[in-house]
Amino acid sequence: MNIPLKVDTVIADPNTGAQIVILKDEQNLELLPIWVGMAEGNAIRFALEGIISPRPLTHDLLKDFLKHLKIPLEKVLIHSMSGTTYYASLHLIQTPASKTKTDKQSEGQENPPDLQQEPEELTVDARPSDAIALALRMGVPIYVTEEVLRKKGSDNLDTWLEKLKPKDFGPYDA
Amino acid sequence: MLVQMKVRGLMFDPYNNAYIVILRGEENTDVLPIWVGRPEANAISLALEGIFTPRPMSHDLIKSVLDTVDAKIISVVVTELKDNTYLSKTHLTYQDSEFTVDSRPSDAIALALRADVPIFVAEEAIKKPSSEELDRWLENLRPEDFGKYDT
């Protein structure tokens, strides 16, 4: 079963300079921290705070591509982890192109009138950071598999949390 | 008119704490320096050096989304310089239609290198007089400031 998660906050890891995206489930019972790079952390933070850049940033561009091509993003899913790396996927809905008139003519026959082109779900492998940055921009849900929540490295997290000091928290942590 | 250009160099600008992508025409006559941010410079650098990362970086993801839906980037065009910012467009084909999407030159170039499509620059973008800032920066350049891509 997949569990919907919300992005709670993005905080900076003082030890590595990396940023950590904190995801929580709706009941605030489950917490999933994901370490991301500086650029990806900023991309997520911009979306969280609703900051509009005068020029399209990289994830805005991906969103613009999908909008122009009329390919909806259904959801993103954090589906597995290996070592300390999480794997995510984008779930796109593609409606196959209907045959154009010239195609029909060149084939010399009409398509059966009732042949419906069914939309197809396509998945694309992504890092969670890119998937989250895109999901926030497109207003689609972020899911995690139960398996990932069970496997998440809680030991590492506990050690890290113990070392945390109040001043390590950025201004985003209210 | 459009001039085809290639990425000839990528270097650090210590004055602005940013990176500069150097585009140069085939005949080596026109040079266009474009200031880009650090993550975008990194994205361009990975493509230039053909470095394969274990997980897809952001521009790899864009490329793989386009590949998955069978959309193709056909070219990128730096169209104009407006308020010290270069504007560019990415041209795509998808399901027998052509699409033009506004993008920053840095993203467009990072994608062009991954999709192996030409980079064009509109003449009016090249002919704009370079800013005083650029002149000052160029005067201060030393050979060692150039990266290894600048031959």
Describe this structure in words.
The complex is a heterodimer of chains A (174) and B (151). Chain A has helices at residues 38-49, 58-68, 101-107, 128-138, 146-151, 154-163, and strands at 2-12, 19-25, 31-36, 73-82, 85-94, 120-126, 142-145. Chain A has a 7-stranded mixed sheet with strand order 3-2-1-7-4-5-6. Chain A contains 6 helices and 7 strands. Chain A is 33% helix and 32% strand. In chain A, a hairpin with a 2-residue loop joins strand 4 and strand 5 (85-94). Chain A has a single domain (2-101, 116-168), classed as Bifunctional nuclease domain (Roll). The model of chain A is unreliable at 100-106 (pLDDT under 50). By secondary structure, chain A is of the alpha+beta class. In chain B, strand 5 (85-94) and strand 6 (97-103) form a beta hairpin. Chain B has a 7-stranded mixed sheet with strand order 3-2-1-7-4-5-6. Chain B has helices at residues 38-49, 58-69, 105-115, 123-127, 132-139; strands spanning 2-13, 18-25, 31-36, 72-82, 85-94, 97-103, 119-122. By secondary structure, chain B is α+β, with helices and mostly antiparallel strands. Chain B has one domain (2-141): Bifunctional nuclease domain (Roll), CATH 3.10.690.10.
